[in-house]
Amino acid sequence: MKTISEALNLILAQADLIESETVSIHQAYNRILAEDIKADRDYPPFNRASMDGYALNISDWNEHGLRQFKVVEELHAGAVPTQKLGKGDCLKIMTGAAVPPEADAIIKVELSAHQGTTVSFEEIGDLKKWRNIALRGEDRKTGEILATKGQLCNAAIISVLAVIGKMEVKVAKLPKVSIISTGTEVLPPDKTVLPHQIRDSNSFALQNLLKKFNIGLEHKILVPDDKTLLREAILKGLQSDILILSGGVSMGDADFVPEVLNSQGVQTIFHKIQIKPGKPFWFGKKENGTVVFGLPGNPMSCQVGFRVFIEPYLNAKLGLPKPQSLYLPLMGTHQKRSKFTEYFPCKIINKNEKTFIKTHEYNGSGDIAAMIGSDGLAAHPAKSKKLNENTIIEFLPW
Amino acid sequence: MKTISEALNLILAQADLIESETVSIHQAYNRILAEDIKADRDYPPFNRASMDGYALNISDWNEHGLRQFKVVEELHAGAVPTQKLGKGDCLKIMTGAAVPPEADAIIKVELSAHQGTTVSFEEIGDLKKWRNIALRGEDRKTGEILATKGQLCNAAIISVLAVIGKMEVKVAKLPKVSIISTGTEVLPPDKTVLPHQIRDSNSFALQNLLKKFNIGLEHKILVPDDKTLLREAILKGLQSDILILSGGVSMGDADFVPEVLNSQGVQTIFHKIQIKPGKPFWFGKKENGTVVFGLPGNPMSCQVGFRVFIEPYLNAKLGLPKPQSLYLPLMGTHQKRSKFTEYFPCKIINKNEKTFIKTHEYNGSGDIAAMIGSDGLAAHPAKSKKLNENTIIEFLPW
Q1: Out of B95, B165, B189, whose CB is closest to A162?
Q2: Which of B163, B194, B347 to mutate to test the interface with A (most CBs of A within 10 A)?
Q3: pLDDT at A253
Q4: The pTM is what?
Q5: Dist. CA A248–CA A221, nearest whole Å
Q6: Best mutation site among A204, A217, A304, A371 for testing chain B: the one with the most B CBs within 10 Å?
Q7: CB–CB contact A156 B202 (8 Å)
Q8: For an interface test with A, which of B196, B344, B358, B365 has the most A Cβ atoms less than 10 Å from its Cβ?
Q9: What's residue B254's pLDDT?
Q10: A366 CB near a chain B CB, below 8 Å?
Q11: How does pLDDT run across B36-63, given as a tens digit for each residue?
Q12: Which of A146, B72, B251, B384 fits a 20 to 30 Å CA distance from A214?
């Protein structure tokens, strides 16, 4: 039986980086960059007025001692000056406008008195060059990398793609994923259930966990514990890059999943992990092909298995850094019965401007609603029986 | 000029809860529940085997001292027993199967020796009633609330909708939102720019920030600093529930936004907030109608304004609790020049299993790429000039 880190390493070893595709800036949200994004020109692209005021040449002020200037023009953002500034000239300029080459300082409007075509200023001593001007290229130089391969295309990145006029961008392709829920007792949610039957929840949990990555499904199949039907379902599922099964991976007489997978050429990489919940986790791969995750059928085990093992796999496959944990103090205590590392749902709670994680109440790993209202999973390490108040522990946000 | 909390209160006072609509379970991801979700039956719905083993009546074991039983049947999950258990009978049962009414304990398979139709067990002392059985209703009772109005439909909630057979769910409607970017210097990103022009980024930032809420746009308009064109754009935008403008809200000669809004019947609720960046924030409302946010045109101010003011507004409007901050220690220090509360982009960093926030490097609020690579915004409170290493500060994740 593998430890959690052994299992994770074996899983990540199969996460070859997926190829890329080009999408429009309008489709890029939440996709992962597969190319570095470079500045198309200097930013600011011109010497930019950072205040509303009067642009002038500092030699007029500092050397010639002028305090009264002729306003030759008014320059708004987006406009081009029609006049050259001569000695004693200035132009009224608005924030965001391109400062003409003859000007090298702006005196803000609040320090001026403007009458007709003349403006005079308060005495403010010598002017520093580039006062109230953001210099061309002072933020970013042409060719400078603004965002890197492997970053998630969020609003900040997409807004920069727009700034640099990049209407199409290379992103990681989305892997093809199929889901198979197994169990003779499991019916589709739109069917009437008899007292000994339950409705399928795992495929819905998994399908919606995948939406975080923008991944849709190739096939979603619900199959009873029947070898022939399971074989058919698996054959379909193996057409995808990733196949996720739930149920049928324990040691019961009807747990056919590993056997049928093997019979279809999927080799077992490992079976079982020292984790609670979710011990009967199965992982394998078809030669040159599909990676297969077999999750336990218990809803909580299934969701924990996804968060702890499949999510890091997807991050690696798509080129993202590994999912970020938080290390936060525990509010209250937590008791553990098994000898394994235990994951339990928690909420983030702020108290007196400090952030804690707090155990989220639920009734054991069979509780259908165990995860509702939780912000993520906390890890109770294998070695400690009890976590005391304020112990800093690892928290995996959803 | 309003303080941040005065401004936020004035904004939240306009956030009437939006009405609801019914969507399919397949469309519910990331929407906000507008009804409480109740258990359709007990969970587990039947006494459920939680181990593979043999189900028997404990009186046979405890009172009659039997240690050898006749296996009358094998019961898989999803199957119904065909035999009644008599004295000395047991049935082989699989995890997840419904335990028949005559049985009240399961002995796990590992403690058994099964030959033909007979199974004998190791001596394990008296059996406790309901050993290895999850009792009907022990997790949740019929009618119990599993998820509440105002929760985000994530994978956990949608999986429970499936379990209870709820194929349709009431969620908060999505408000109609329009965006207007203003500025004569601003061109659409697919156009060639001259040296004194820039491409529109704010509408892309805002449009993609709204995607967090699943909100698409009614209108997205780019308009120069021209009163007539701005009036036309605003008239269109006012057909939405929410209108967000960027630019044109400062005090410059071309900052027409407040004036034109007022002329179209939008009343100023406030203008300017004691915040950096983003001071020239404008907020107003048309009588019985559209709520209008006027954000500064500077890209960083625009994104900060959205995160600090518009996001809490949307949460309230949709019935969500307010966005959750984290309070984390600062790695490094942070110096502040203005007298206002200052928001600056930060990254979450783990060091020696402790979580910190760290200032994200950028070149000032005009830097187009300032937010890229940041995980959120940290708040430098107005009253302190310098934040020392390890000061706990408020962090607003993206």
Answers
A1: B189
A2: B163
A3: 80
A4: 0.96
A5: 14
A6: A204
A7: no
A8: B196
A9: 81
A10: yes
A11: 999 999 999 999 999 999 999 999 999 9
A12: A146
ipTM over 0.90: yes
**How much is the pLDDT for B65?**
95
Per-residue pLDDT at B288: 82
Pick the CATH number of A48-134 from 3.20.20.70, 2.170.190.11, 1.10.3860.10, 3.40.30.10: 2.170.190.11
Task: Pick left, alpha or beta for residue A353 (phi over 0 → left; psi -120 to 50 → alpha; otherwise beta).
Answer: left
Q: Give me chain B's average pLDDT, please.
A: 96
Tell me the CATH architecture of domain B21-40+141-172: Alpha-Beta Complex (3.90)
Q: Is the CB of B201 less than 8 angstroms away from the CB of A354?
A: no
Q: What is the pLDDT of residue A254?
A: 81
- Tell me what the mean pLDDT of segment A70-98 comes to: 95
What is the C-alpha to C-alpha distance for residues A66 and A88, in angstroms, rounded to an integer?
7
Domain A326-397: CATH architecture, name and number where available: Beta Barrel (2.40)
Chain B residue numbers with beta carbons less than 8 Å from the beta carbon of A200 are 162
pLDDT of B253: 80
Look at residues B98, B54, B56 and name the one whose alpha carbon lies nearest to residue B76.
B98
Q: Which CATH class is domain A4-17+174-317?
A: alpha beta
Residues 297-336 of A with CB under 8 A from B: 297, 299, 303, 324-328
Contacts of B368 in chain A (CB under 8 A): 43, 139-140, 146, 159-160, 163
Do A253 and B114 meet the contact criterion of CB atoms below 8 Å apart?
Answer: no
Q: How far apart are CA A155 and CA B206, in angstroms?
A: 7
All residues of chain A having their beta carbon less than 8 Å from the beta carbon of residue B195 are 45-46, 98
Question: Residue A352 phi/psi, 5° resolution?
Answer: 50, 45
CATH class of A25-39+141-172: alpha beta
Assess whether pLDDT exceeds 90 at residue B245.
Answer: yes
Contact B225 A46 (CB under 8 A): no
Confirm if A241 and A290 have CB atoms less than 8 A apart.
yes
Residues 27-66 of A with CB under 8 A from B: 29-30, 43-46, 48, 50, 52
Interchain proximity B139–A366, CB inside 8 Å: yes
Residue with tokens 């379970």, as numbered in its chain: B25
Class of domain B4-17+174-318 (CATH, top level): alpha beta
DSSP A41-52: S-BSSS-EE-SS
Percentage of residues in chain B having pLDDT higher than 70: 100
Query: Is the per-residue pLDDT at B317 higher than 90?
Result: yes
Q: Binning pLDDT at 50, 70 and 90, where does residue B337 land?
A: confident
Concatenating the DSSP letter of every residue in A226-280 gives -HHHHHHHHHHHTTSSEEEEES--SSSTT--HHHHHHHTTEEEEEE-BSEES-TT
Q: Could you tell me which chain B residue has the CA closest to the CA of A361?
A: B139
